[in-house]
Design goal:
50 residues; mainly beta; elongated; 0% helix
Length: 50
């Protein structure tokens, strides 16, 4: 799983997501959601909040 694509050979591993990554998405109304991307596998899921 990569955060960015590149055509340059020397950037082959630079953008690889190797660890868990959280992305917060916020609407205009300030509603927030978080998604998690697991490193290496690329599995994406929504974080459950209590």
């Amino acid at each position: 799983m990569y955060s960015k694509l590149s055509n340059k050979e020397d950037e082959e591993e630079e953008y690889e997501i190797k660890e868990r990554c959280k992305i917060e998405i916020k609407t205009k109304e300030n509603e927030r959601r978080e998604i998690i991307i697991e490193g290496r596998s690329g599995y994406v899921y929504k974080e459950e909040r209590p």
